[in-house]
Every structure is written in structure tokens, then in C-alpha cells.
Amino acid sequence: MKFSVHIPFVELLGFELQKFEGGEATICFDPKPEHQNSFNVVHGGASMTLLDVVMAHAARSVEPAMGCVTVEMKTSFMRPAKGALTAHGTLLHRTPTMAFTEGRIVDAAGKLCAHATGTFKFVPRLPVGKGTNALNTLKTD
Q: Average pLDDT in the 86-98 region?
């Protein structure tokens, strides 16, 4: 399944969208050596990005035409993340402008590596492409 929006950083990390519907999202990540920290496990920043993206997609899955920006995120790391990872995001509650979510990362054995909660703001998607640069400014106020 393809991501419905172009996110260069997500493409660089190699995330693969598996589910995007009904307030849920699933993304797989096969970390490479350059995604590791000095302890040879997945860097916390890569894990937090994975959680951020899966929670935002869970929020957007109920209204794909809208954009979603992170307002707040809290992450807890339970164990080192190694090998192939799967992130699951769930929309817990939404208002017309906000989404409240949670996300989990599990390893190939199904062991929980990290958990997060996040708050996201729905924002209108703007036209993109040649000649639309002035329209690409995100308005979050």
C-alpha cells in the first residue's frame, strides 16, 4: 500500500504502510545499520518517527483528505528495538480539529519495544506541484 502523501523523510527511512483505515494504521520498518545508535539497536529518534507517523496515519485514516500535524507526543521505551519492526497506531478520540492517538512498536517476536500517545491537529491539505509554492504554506493557527 502506498502512502497517500509524499513525506521525503519517511521515504528515506523506508517505512511501508500496511493498513490505513477506520482509525487504525500499521507501518512496517526494516531498520538498516545506519538507523542504529552506538549500542547497535534502532536509534530512539527513528523509533519516535515511526510512532509519530503511524499515529498521524491512524488519525488521518478517518478523514484522508485532511492533513495532520503533531501537537504533542509522549514516548516510553520498554526494550531495545532490533530487527524488523511493526508499528500499530490507533485513533482513541477525535474532535473536529484534534485527534488523540496511541501507538506501539513491536519486534518480530511480538514483544513491545515502545509505546506512545500523541495529539494531532487536523489541517486542510493544500495544492502542491508546479506553480503552487505560495500555496504550500501550512496554516496551523
A: 97
Q: What is the pLDDT of residue 96?
A: 94
Q: What is the DSSP string of 90-136?
A: EEEEE-SSEEEEEEEEEETT--EEEEEEEEEEEEE----STT-GGGG
State the average pLDDT over residues 84-90: 98
For residue 34, give the 3-state DSSP assignment.
Answer: helix
Residue 33 backbone dihedrals phi, psi, to 5 degrees: -55, -35
Predicted TM-score (pTM) of the model is 0.90
Query: What count of residues does the chain have?
Result: 141
Regarding beta strands 66-77 and 16-21, do their DSSP bridges make them parallel or antiparallel, or are they unpaired? unpaired
Q: What are phi and psi of 73, to 5 degrees?
A: -150, 135
